[in-house]
Amino acid sequence: MYGPSADVMGCEELVDTLVSYIEESFGVEYGAVPEVVHASIADVESYVRDRDRAITGVEPDAATVHERAKHVYGSTSGIYDGINHRVLVMDNAARPQVLDDLGQGIEVDPTTMADQGELVYILAHELVHGYQRNHGAPSEPELIVASARSIQQENGSITGRLAGLFRANHMSEGMQLVYGALPALTVIEGQADYMAMGALLAHKDELPEAAAYAAQKYVEQTTDSGDGDYRTMVKGLLVAKQQMEAGKAPELCTSPQFAHALKDAQYIIGFDYIAETARDEGHSMDWFVENLPDKLDAFL
Ligand SMILES: [Zn+2]
């Protein structure tokens, strides 16, 4: 039922096919194809280690890496590693057992269990991230580091320092970093879904299961945003940000539900923004990668 990765993972032919669908559907030149890895827990540890090192500048502690890798392994079916230009695809059939063997009660999030059609969709989505990277998109650690730097600069001015002090009491630094990286990540994630869906829907006959999954996801995506009314979601995010900055909603800063909602918002807002802007302004997919926004207002 779930799984089987053999058909998806390590399958160079499928990777090449998806890359050619992406190129052909959107008239883009993909560039260097990433290595696609059938990911073990050790591969995920290596990803977490590289990511932490890139963000903090120091070698992360092995026990922390191991612990975080288990959480990542339990909560996702695919990852694009922008540092190493590599796609990690999990073996869904093996994930529960691997985590069980590692012990300490971390389980696979059932919503991240993927069937064959979804695994192909996930692979297409992660491959779009590879195209974006080839065209100069920053990796997630680079976005977080840039966001941290801009906070430091803001704290250097007098009003900025006050704002920083105020926030330090009411808003976790983590949430500021999340908001700093959010606009670019919204385009990056929305475009990955938009192009994966477009490429698969254009090839219904060749990959029927994946195209069926893409079609279902398209319906969900447009319903979740209130039929394309993504601006209302953006306005909600801006209000939450202002409240946090004013210290009015300290509970939002630490709420896992809010963090989760922010992540979901990236996909929904980004997808609808790209669909609408590509249609109305006629922008190419390359244009979106080359013009990543740094403010949420860009979506209004
Ligand atoms: Zn993604």
Which structural class fits the helix and strand makeup?
mainly alpha
Can you give the helix content as a percent range? 55-70%
Bound molecules: zinc ion
**SSE topology string:** HHEHHEEHHHHHHHHHH
Question: What's the number of extended β-strand segments?
Answer: 3
How does this structure look, described?
- The protein starts with a helix and ends in a 10-residue tail after the last helix.
- The protein is 68% helix and 5% strand.
- The protein has 300 residues and is mainly alpha-helical.
- A hairpin with a 4-residue loop joins strand 2 and strand 3 (86-90).
- The protein has a three-stranded mixed β-sheet with strand order 1-3-2.
- 37% of the residues are buried.
- Mean pLDDT is 85; it is low at 1-6 and 165-171.
- The protein has helices at residues 5-8, 12-26, 41-56, 62-75, 95-102, 116-134, 140-156, 158-170, 173-201, 208-224, 230-245, 250-254, 256-281, 285-290; strands at 35-39, 78-81, 86-90.
- It has two domains: 1-115, no CATH class; 136-300, no CATH class.
- The protein is built from 14 helices and three strands.
- The radius of gyration is 19 Å and the shape is globular.
- The chain binds zinc ion.
- The site of zinc ion has 4 residues, from helix 6 and helix 9.
Question: Layout of helices and strands, plus pairs?
Answer:
Layout: H1 5-8, H2 12-26, E1 35-39, H3 41-56, H4 62-75, E2 78-81, E3 86-90, H5 95-102, H6 116-134, H7 140-156, H8 158-170, H9 173-201, H10 208-224, H11 230-245, H12 250-254, H13 256-281, H14 285-290
Parallel strand pairs: 1-3
Antiparallel strand pairs: 2-3
Helix pairs in contact: 2-6, 2-9, 3-4, 3-7, 6-9, 6-10, 7-8, 7-9, 9-10, 9-13, 11-13
The site of zinc ion (ZN) has 4 residues, from helix 6 and helix 9.
